[in-house]
Amino acid sequence: MIIRPYAPGDEDALYDVCLRTGDSGADATGQFADPRLLGEIFVGPYLRFEPSLAFVVDDGEPAGYVLGARDTPAFERECEREWWPPLRARYPIGTFPDGTRDAHYVEVLHRPHAADPAIVADYPAHLHIDLLPRTQGRGMGRALMQRLLDALREAGAPGVHLGVGAANARAIAFYEHLGFTTLRETPGGRTMGRPTS
């Protein structure tokens, strides 16, 4: 089991990891009519716009990843210009029945959340990390995070933030162990951040 940089050709496998961890770390495969939808939001734009900040756990095939964006507002602007428009054309509002997870994420891609200026002032970068169960408990998550933190620091980002669901207690404890602190909390989740050094 190794950690390596993202390579072209990994996309489908990383989309699959995203889906298989898309229920607060558990498998969300049965919850989506379109198995690519989550990956189009949480994986694709990072591979397109920030490939040097994408690292993969590989045990013969990709089994986890960490993805980052150095400058969140700039990344959001790039997505708005280039990534979201074709997806909005492919997934108009109403593509899926109301109340489904697919419908919720179609809303997300039509009305993406914008980062809070108060958070990105000190923590301008952000990240997503997902690991399949077979890679967990083996130090891969910590190693992935260290690779990304080093890369973000070298890229000039002083701090990084992330979002985590309130139900994902294991992930919250993992981030706290890595030095992340809670910056904002809502009933649905929290935003956490830490310096890159």
How would you describe this protein?
By secondary structure, the protein is an alpha+beta fold. The protein has a single domain (2-195), classed as Aminopeptidase, CATH 3.40.630. Helix content is 40%, strand content 22%. The chain has eight helices and seven strands. The chain has a seven-stranded mixed β-sheet, sandwiched between helices. Strand 2 (54-58) and strand 3 (62-69) form a beta hairpin. The radius of gyration is 16 Å and the shape is globular. The mean pLDDT is 95. GO terms for molecular function: acyltransferase activity, transferring groups other than amino-acyl groups. Pfam families: Acetyltransf_1. It comes from Jiangella ureilytica.
How would you summarize what this structure contains?
The protein is built from eight helices and seven strands, in the order βαααββαααβαβαββ.
Helix content: 40-55%
Strand fraction:
15-25%
Query: Which fold name is given in CATH as the topology?
Result: Aminopeptidase
The CATH architecture can be given as 3-Layer(aba) Sandwich
Task: Write the CATH homologous superfamily.
Answer: Gcn5-related N-acetyltransferase (GNAT)
Number of domains: 1
SSE pattern, N- to C-terminal:
EHHHEEHHHEHEHEE
What is the count of DSSP helices, taking H or I runs of 4+ residues?
A: 8
The shape, in one word, is: globular
CATH level 1 class label: Alpha Beta
Measure the end-to-end span: 26 Å
* Parts with pLDDT < 50 across at least 5 consecutive residues: none
Q: Major sheet: order of its strands?
A: 1-2-3-4-5-7-6
- Give Rg in angstroms: 16 Å
**Helix/strand class:** alpha+beta
Outline the biggest β-sheet. Answer: 7 strands, mixed
The whole-number mean of residue pLDDT values reads 95
Keywords: Transferase
InterPro entries: Acyl_CoA_acyltransferase (IPR016181), Glycosyl_Hydrolase_84 (IPR051822), GNAT_dom (IPR000182)
GO molecular function, one term: acyltransferase activity, transferring groups other than amino-acyl groups
Domain N-acetyltransferase: 1-197
